[in-house]
Amino acid sequence: MMTCLQEAVVPKSSAACAPDRVAGGPAMSHPMRPIPRRRAGLSAAVANAALAQLPLAVAVIAADLRLLYWNEPAANLFGVPSLMAADTPLLAGTLAGIANLTQPQRERIIAFVTDQIATLDRGEPDCCLRMLLGRERRFVLKVRGLGCGRWMLLIDDGAMTAVSSQNGAAPGDAWLDALTGLSNRRRVNEVLRNLTTNATPENHVAMLIIDLDRFKPINDTLGHSVGDAMLYLAAQRLRRETRDEDLLGRLGGDEFVILLPDGGHAEALAARVVDVMSRPFLVEGHIATIGASVGIARFPDHAMSADRLLRHADTALYSAKRAGGGTWRMFEPTMAAATHTRRALEMDLRKALTLGELSLVYQPRLTIRTQSLSGFEALPHWNHPTRGIVSASEFIPVAETIGCIAAMNEWVLKTACMDVAGWPVPLPVAVRVSARQIEDGERLFRAIQAALRESGLAAVRLELEITDRSLLSQDEPLMRTLRRLHEVGVRIAMDDFGTGMSTTAQGVHTLEQATLAETSLCTDIQGDVGSAPVPASDIDSLIGRYFPKPVAVKR
Amino acid sequence: MKIRILKRITGATSLYRMIYCSRNVIAEVVPGASTAYGMEREIQAILESARRCNIADHVTGALLCTPPGFAQVLEGPREVLERTFERIDGDRRHADVMALSFTPTGRRSFPDWPMGFHRQTSAEEADPLAHLLTDSTFAGRRVTTGRDVLRLLESVVRPADDWIVT
Description:
The structure holds two protein chains of two kinds. Chain A is an alpha+beta fold. Chain A has helices at 2-8, 44-53, 72-78, 91-95, 103-121, 162-166, 172-175, 185-197, 215-222, 224-241, 266-278, 306-322, 333-355, 392-401, 405-421, 441-455, 477-487, 506-516, 539-546, and strands at 57-62, 67-70, 128-133, 137-147, 150-156, 205-213, 247-252, 255-260, 281-283, 286-288, 291-299, 328-330, 358-367, 373-384, 388-390, 429-434, 462-467, 491-494, 524-526, 534-535.
């Protein structure tokens, strides 16, 4: 395609027969490279008309990246009027007019043009930038030096070559990830299948699966455009660490893959990937720090098929994630056993949720000074027919990974409110929720409202205990939800109050200070000193121990 | 010698200042750089490439180099700084890169230098970065924020520090 681009910039003789239409504007007043005009010669007007009529977007820029000239296809592409003599718009702004061009792509173009301007000046060979516009159109950009501080941008946006690509010559688009320009999942699968089916006994392939740590909060708090720009930068960092013969792809979301066809240096590469991803990113005016976890599996050492290799690398990745992220793990067969055990637990938990095997138990809270009962904490309890009692610390992380934690939290809230509303003393109940578990603050707000409405429980008797409070930041939607809940009377307790203060701003202090006095932290105790958690059916007798005389029920 | 950036910074993007510090691992990753001469050569190479890129990008700033680490201020249009930092960040010759600040600014602190420089080699002088870079508990560090690093660089980087080779 670039061949035709290069040829196209020299006006063909037929252009001289084109109507003598002048694109106008300052084009000729700028010292562009003289258009060939030897013996035959071309008037400036005809040359201008020829440029204007090229079936290719042509723009001339100066070193400050302002457009001095653009032809009609360029005007159509950028969505701007034909030349305006007085205006020399910035390339960055002009690119914004190209439909389907994403912000990271625009930045990539600016970076490429800037880089090309520098390298062309040093006499280095030029190259072209290819990217996808949306799903279908291919965008190819080339920069050529014209001398005198002017450069020409040649852009083929695919509209002209649609006919030739219909012949099936260019399979590229279907293989590329549009955001990062890396190979997509389909391409990775294809290459992997080829590598593994055509492998000779000496062939060794290593697969690295890379998952970004803490990417979701970036996406949630800074928005998807920052998230996309971040993914693009992460992809570039990976690209710099890989060789031409390695296959680098994006599997989707924030998951990437590297295939090393010779199997070598997988550990060193994984360590380097973990290192470069842990370094800060500057993205759209923000400093962002993420990280990466890497799982490695080898063919044929660990797996004899493409599917298994992928699964084993995934298992190793999971192990790296479980270790807290920011690290890499090589697959080991014991990991597969652990995964199997976990899968079984996942299936049992799904069944338990459907069959209603879960129940709530209530941990009494006592006031230290008076040893009087001050409230309860509701805890989910799972008594499995064959496993026996499964501890919450074991099944809650499983519920998080299989994506049913929100439903489980809703069930806990609703059941606890119903139970407590019917008890003979107006004591509060605490429900513990991890900040990490709450994906949708609005959903949580609605669930709490519904639980209070259906049970008739006064909002002040419900306490939401937020764990992993350090995962919260001031701007997060969840923080706003907590503030709204606080306003309707629900008590909010942060069980790790006092940590992470440096990341919070004024408003949160006020909320925290307001709730600190109300949290059970300072005045109440629970656990060993108090009594063991009891099922709802035993609450009456427990309350009876602390409140010998009947108390009027206040809902 | 001063190199004045004469080109006016044009464009709609706003001026930003980025400040970071990092640990110097040149001796560990560059063969032959464990000697004083090798280290000197490597640092000169870093400066020259920084200067070349920064002139092209209209970026200004200053670099402080002490035995254990680096502190750098970069000033320029936001997008350019993001790109410049991406290039610096992944460099194997430093580690534990800590981005201290990245904020819009009304003026450049080092308008005249593509990369002002100060080198502190003397073991007698107190190292202003030592605490930040070596004490993982951050107890008692003296250079704590981007603003502190900026003040430090403004005080140590002087026009007399003429490293520019033309």
